[in-house]
Each structure stands twice: as structure tokens, then as C-alpha cells.
Amino acid sequence: MRARTTVGATLVVAVALVAAGLLVVTLLRDNLYGRAELTAEVSARSIAGALASGTPPSALELPDDDELAQVLDATGTVVAASDDLEGLAAVGDFAPEPDPVETADESTGEDDDADDDESDDDQDDADDDDTETPAGEDSGTTEGGGAVGSPIVYETLTVPGEDASYRFAGIAATAPDGRVYAVYSGASLETQEEAVDSVGATMAWSLPPLLAVVAVVTWLVVRRALRPVAAIQKELIEITGGDLTRRVPVPASRDEIHSLARTTNMTLAALDAAVSQQRRFVADASHELRSPLAILRTQLEIAREHPELLDLEATLGDVTRLQDLATDLLLLARLDAGERPPHVEVPFTELVREEVARRAATDRVPVRLDVEEDLAVWGVRGHLARGVGNLLANAQRHAEEAVTVRLEAEDETWLRLEIADDGNGVPKGQRRRIFDRFVRLDESRSRDEGGAGLGLAIVKDVVLEHRGRIEVVDAPEGGALFRLLLRRSR
Q1: Which pLDDT tens digit goes with each residue over 56-98?
Q2: Are 479 and 424 spatial neighbours (Cβ–Cβ below 8 Å)?
Q3: pTM for this entry
Q4: Is 489 helix (H, G, I), strand (E, B) or coil?
Q5: First to last CA, the chain
Q6: DSSP secondary structure code for residue 145 in this structure
Q7: What is the 3-state secondary structure (H, E, C) of 48-89?
Q8: Domains of the chain, each with CATH number or no CATH
Q9: What backbone torsions phi and psi does residue 191 show, to the nearest 5 degrees?
Q10: Going by C-beta distance under 8 Å and a sequence separation of 6 or more, which residues neighbour residue 125?
Q11: Torsional class of 419: left (φ above 0), alpha (ψ -120 to 50), beta (otherwise)
């Protein structure tokens, strides 16, 4: 993970730096080349203005050193050039066509057209007033009758004998005598290219060290950030050895790793509780199975030596007790394993009636039944029947004279089942504990009557499976009242 993060961060920074470098170099190049174009344009317009004012090409003062200039006539012959361009051919032919200029020879002097000429002059003056000349440009007709072309074209050219390139501006000029000239003025790009190359080289040379710094810093930061993860991993390896009481270290930083460590400790705590509960369950189940098996073995050994002493009814009772205990253990194991059979609509009123009727033949105390008709729930019929049966068996075990069963609709969402007895009740401090497995508040009586302490635990798991609620309160008869709430299906 450290390597992937480091490589990824370095690549992102590299791409960002390269993109930023290219943008800076491009902007710098455009700015510097723009300055060269401006220098070449100013020089070209100055020379063209001199030609338009009547200065002959031989009398022109042309720039030298970092600037070059060349003047061509209409035939393309070089008529004036800077010292560095003396004897060289034309640098180019990209100068635009000159603007049309009306000379004195072309004007007419007819008297009958004087008014028209005056009107045309006025219109020309108006047109001249409407024409905008860009700032810094000398385009247009000069006092001497010549003109400087308004369009200007740029090209980058190399000059024989010169190492650097030049940015040339091309413009046309018309002399007062009507001769047309093409003026080319160039500014050296040597300084600009050196600046751009210098900036590019500096960026290129500084990129690898900068990326190395980014990579090292990223590696160190990620390693430091993942140090708690390594500690958590080390502790988990120790915990895997079997000591679920240990916990992983929680870093002081309030970040995702802090949350991960807390969640891991919560998971370990839940796992420790589940394993402890499973161990207690196995130990208690072994203990509960050992007692009836020992009694049954004793009875069978006595019957082998003295068949006349065999009490079949007692032996059958012990076998039934073993069968019920095994059934309870199997159901709890399935619920613990997350086994969830498909839920269907269960007519709950009918189910309660059937459970009460099934126990009528062996009831120790009578059951008073008060149920509302046509109540149904979504669930597993077998599990619900087992839960209701366990509540009835618990009430009958502790009742003195009678058990009361009431079933009614709580509202449009819930139904309420209440099973009350007139026994001793459940102390308030024990009302949560009685739903734990293998818990018996009256050990001797529970054992004598066959209770193993699993009935109410099964009831609680069945209720949770059906997303219901169960509670224990004092019954009006003086005993315990178990109130069960389940969601209605209709």
C-alpha cells in the first residue's frame, strides 16, 4: 500500500508539474515573441512612413545589431538593406498588397464638375473622419502624397550567417511618386529563445529532485499513518492464537484508523461474548444431559439385575425429558446459526387455541382463555408454537390455581398476548436474567418438574426472530405476567 500510494502521488505531481511547466513556457514564449513582433512592427512602420513621405530608399536609416531591415521594390529587387543583409536575396515575399492611393495625375479639373468634386471631397473628408487608425500605427496617406499599408504580416525566418531566428514584420508602402515598396523588419529572437530554453531547462532539471522529495515525503507520511495498522495487525495475530480477551491498540488520532481500531475492538468484544456464551452453553448442556442419562442408566442397570423393580413410567419420563432437552438444544443451535425458515402468514388465534387444547389433558391447573378472533402474524409457525407452548408450560409450572391467557389487538400494527399465573411471580431484579439459558430461579423445583432452564431462552430468541418484544410484569392475580407483542399481518 505504501508503494502504490507513493507511486500514485508521484505520478500525479509529475503530471501536474509537467502541465504547469508547459503552460508557463508557452505563456512566456508568447509574451516574449509578442515583444519581438512589436519591435519589428514599429521599425517596419517607421521605415514605411519614411518612404511614404518621399525619402528615397538610399537615404533611409535602417536598424542594425539585434534588428534587421530590408526594402524591396515592386519587382522584388532589394533597394535598401541593413549591413547584415547587404548582398543577400530578399528575406521573403509575404508583405501584403498596398492600399490603393489616388495620385494628382489621375484627378480631373472640369468646371462643370466642380460641385461634384467639392461634394466628393466633403465625402472623402467624412470617410477619413470615420476611419479608425490603431494606436501607434502610421497607416494611411502621408503629407507627401504617399501611403503606408494598413495590414501587416509576421513570419519567423532564419537569416544566412545568423545563428538566431528573427521575427519579421512585412508591410507595404507607396511613395509620393507612386512607387510601391515592400518593407521587411525583423527583431532577433535570440534573447527570447535563450530565456525560454533557460526556463525549460531549469524546470526539466528541477523536476526529478522535486519528484524524489515528493516520493520520499509521501512514503514517510504513509508509513507513519499506517504504523497503527501494523500494530493492529500484530495484535490480531496474537489474538488469533486464542486469547479473545485482548484488544487492539487504539491510536490517539481521530481518523479512519482510530475508527477501525474501535470497530475491531467492538467486534472482538462481541466475538468474545459469543464464544463465552457458546462455551457456557456447551458446558451447561453437557451438565443437563449428564443428569438424566445417569438416572436412566442407573434404572436400566437395576432392571437388569432385578427386572421386577423396573419402573417403566419413570423410565419413560426420563426418556421424554431427554428428548425435550435435545429438541430445545437443537432449536437454540439453529437460531444461533442464523437459520431463518421462510415466513408465512400464521393464524395466531388458531395457534394459541391449539396450544392450549394440546395441554388440556395434562394440565396441572386450568387455563382461562380469552382471545380475539382472526388475528394473524407473519412468521414460522413451528417456532411460534414452541414459544407459546413454553410460556404456557412455564405459567402452569409456577401457578397455584389457574393460568389466564388473553390475546387481543394492540393497534393496527401489533397484537398482544398475555399469559399470567397466580404463583409467586418473578422478582424485579431477576426479570431480565430469566431469559438467559439454563437459568432457574428455583433450582430444586425446576429439576423435579423437568425444567432445564431453556424454555424462556427459546421464547426470547423466537420473539427476536419475529422482531417482536416480550416483557415480564406483575400479574393482577399476584404472580407473573408475560406480555408478548408481535406484528400483525392483518
Answers
A1: 988 888 887 778 888 998 888 888 888 888 888 888 888 888 7
A2: yes
A3: 0.48
A4: coil
A5: 55
A6: S
A7: HHHHHCCCCHHHCCCCCCCEEEEEECCCCCEEEECHHHCCCC
A8: 2-196 (no CATH), 244-336 (1.10.287), 340-487 (3.30.565.10)
A9: -65, -40
A10: none
A11: beta
